């Protein structure tokens, strides 16, 4: 009899517990989440360049910054401007992914100043560009050379011509 009573109590206890258990709810309707707003203008597709096409155009860069192979400088300066930083960043990312690719950095100056001064200035400019590329991941792939005033792009004796001649050319 004790056995039957124990079995009845166990069944009764199970029924009471199942009646007290929380009811399972039907699966919720799937919620629709809004996609984040797309940035205005397409983001440049090359990894690491976080600028829109409009921002690149505002810097004077149309399309891929790696297509720009010349970095320009102000008179008697080795300072890198924002446009040049973007160009060099793109080249550094490219070179960082291609360890075997070598690049030659040719420094130039305008005709003002002595030959020796302009050779030294062209070398400093090429070295600054090499430092930026190296910091961006293109280590030990750079060869620098200075031509000073010896290879002008524009031989006129005007400020516009001199601006074109103050440069570093990036050659793969």
Task: Explain this structure.
- The chain is 40% helix and 12% strand.
- It has helices spanning 2-20, 53-58, 82-96, 115-135, 159-165, and strands at residues 70-72, 103-108, 142-148, 167-171.
- It has a four-stranded mixed β-sheet.
- α3 crosses α4 (115-135).
- The longest helix has 21 residues, at 115-135.
- Label the CATH architecture of the domain at 65-172: 2-Layer Sandwich
Low-confidence spans: none
CATH superfamily of the domain at 65-172: OmpA-like domain
Briefly note the structural class of the backbone.
Answer: alpha+beta
Topology:
Blueprint: H1 2-20, H2 53-58, E1 70-72, H3 82-96, E2 103-108, H4 115-135, E3 142-148, H5 159-165, E4 167-171
Parallel strand pairs: 2-3
Antiparallel strand pairs: 1-4, 2-4
Write a brief structural summary.
The protein has helices spanning 2-20, 53-58, 82-96, 115-135, 159-165; strands spanning 70-72, 103-108, 142-148, 167-171.
Annotation keywords:
4 strands, 4-stranded mixed beta sheet, 60s Ribosomal Protein L30, Chain: A, 172 residues, alpha+beta, elongated, 40% helix
């Amino acid at each position: 009899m004790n056995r039957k009573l124990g079995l009845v109590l166990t069944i009764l206890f199970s029924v009471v517990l199942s009646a007290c258990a929380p009811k399972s709810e039907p699966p919720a309707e799937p919620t629709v989440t809004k996609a984040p707003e797309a940035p205005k203008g397409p983001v440049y597709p090359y990894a690491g360049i976080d600028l829109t096409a409009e921002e690149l155009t505002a810097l004077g860069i149309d399309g891929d910054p790696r297509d720009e192979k010349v970095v320009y400088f102000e008179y008697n300066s080795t300072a890198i401007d924002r446009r040049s930083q973007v160009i060099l960043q793109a080249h550094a990312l490219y070179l960082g992914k291609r360890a075997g690719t070598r690049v030659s950095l040719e420094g130039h100056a305008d005709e003002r100043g002595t030959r020796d001064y302009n050779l030294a200035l062209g070398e400093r400019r090429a070295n600054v560009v090499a430092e930026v590329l190296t910091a961006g991941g293109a280590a030990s792939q750079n060869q620098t050379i200075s031509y000073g005033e010896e290879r002008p792009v524009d031989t006129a004796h005007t400020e516009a011509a001199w601006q074109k001649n103050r440069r570093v050319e990036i050659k793969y």
